[in-house]
Amino acid sequence: MAKMCRIFKVSPSGYYKWLVRPESATKRENRAIYEVLKINYKLNKGRTGLDKLLDDVRLEFPKCSRNRLYKIQKAHKLYSIRKRKFKATTNSKHAYPVAPNLLKQNFHVDAYSGAAEPQFR
Questions:
Q1: Would you give the distance in Å from CA 54 to the centre of its chain?
Q2: What is the pLDDT of residue 114?
Q3: CB 79 within 8 Å of CB 73
Q4: For 43, which DSSP code?
Q5: Distance, CA of 47 to CA of 111 (rounded, Å)
Q6: 5-26 burial: b if 16+ Cβ within 10 Å, else e
């Protein structure tokens, strides 16, 4: 322990005071904010961004800033799930030859018969 205090340049008495020091009010409030954040994050299935989560948190903690909530969110790895931009990967307008229909499957239906949907197993 004495070696560790020398390395970090801390007095042993200061270390022992730090051990028994009560948690700060900011840390307690951050923990309470995290609980509200976690509930809203799960209710929205992780799809909600920071600004909407901030609106929900501010109902209980009106003085919570955006930056504070971002730091709490980042510390607990609660990032929003982002939808990817649609990207067309098929080029239907090409001059390449089309493969022949070797199985002779007919995918064109003239009318729906009204029968039950086929059951795939």
A1: 15
A2: 64
A3: yes
A4: H
A5: 41
A6: eeeeeeeeeeeeeeeeeeeeee
Q: State residue 107's pLDDT score.
A: 73
Q: Are 15 and 21 in contact (CB under 8 A)?
A: no
CA distance 33 to 23: 15
Global pTM reads 0.60
CB 31 within 8 A of CB 10: no
Query: In angstroms, how far is CA 58 from the centroid of its own chain?
Result: 20
Q: Which two tokens stand for residue 51?
A: 């600004």
Please report which helix (H) or strand (E) contains residue 65, including its range.
none
- 44-69 residue pLDDT tens: 998 888 999 999 999 999 999 999 99
Out of 7-16, 70-79, 104-113, least confident range: 104-113
pLDDT value at residue 26: 94
Which residues fall within 8 angstroms of residue 66, CB to CB, at 6 or more apart?
50, 51, 54
Amino acid at 2: A
Check if the beta carbon of residue 6 is closer than 8 Å to that of residue 41: no
What would the mean pLDDT of 18-35 be, rounded to a whole number?
93
Residue with tokens 């923990």: 31
